[in-house]
């Protein structure tokens, strides 16, 4: 990648849990989830240019970062034309929010911009929600309780140190396909149950402890059954993590990434060596670089 004057980091996220609620009139689902950032992040170079250009080598088609820049322009952002080059480090379509993180990083460029907006400054969280369900939470990466279809973000105390071992299995699992499969399987919970779970999650995370010490029944992913029906290999990855001693193993987001949580880097690296898979990634969780 050609060096560029400004360097941004777009942290991946984990869903420590994901509860699926009813389908809404807009076609999205009510959700209740705990998001936390990872030190694993895309690197984004930004420089002034003659015209806006967003490049993401190795990833075909339009991406959310390009849509985010276009959305800023559409809302009257008067920043200079930009050349944006994304170095993908977060696996694509892996349930880790890499595309949403890139979009949020671009939206942050307009925050406090000297050029400002013509016609008034828009709500960046609202704009992010128009781009994708995970974007609002990525504007300020931190442990957060996320509700609605992703637009309601409640920041929580930073958790104690812990480490994630990721097995992304090549990514490539389409989020919409997983939600459609969940609907076909009849998965989901009522709104009252989602509200009760939100209260339990808020209480569990409120003291800043490690997720390793939360009640185990709270760290569930309602999309796991749907993802497993599409990608049975996710189950193999979860079994490998448990066999390697992961105190907690679960799927992030809509998959296919299987995640093992560990107390420290040494434990996670030891488990990664035992599993011996080329796709394994070890990174700190609950914080950004």
Number of domains: 1
Helix-residue proportion? 25-40%
What is the residue-averaged pLDDT? 94
Q: Report the CATH C-level class.
A: Alpha Beta
- Strand residue percentage: 25-35%
Q: How would you portray this structure in words?
A:
This protein has 289 residues and is of the alpha+beta class. The chain has helices at 64-74, 98-109, 124-131, 135-138, 175-185, 191-205, 224-230, 233-243, 265-275, and strands at 6-23, 29-48, 53-55, 82-87, 144-148, 152-155, 162-167, 248-251, 258-262, 281-285. The chain has a single domain, classed as Ribosomal Protein S5, domain 2 (2-Layer Sandwich), CATH 3.30.230.10. The protein is built from nine helices and ten strands. The two termini are 20 Å apart.
List keywords for this structure.
four-stranded antiparallel sheet; Ribosomal Protein S5, domain 2; about 290 residues; globular; alpha+beta
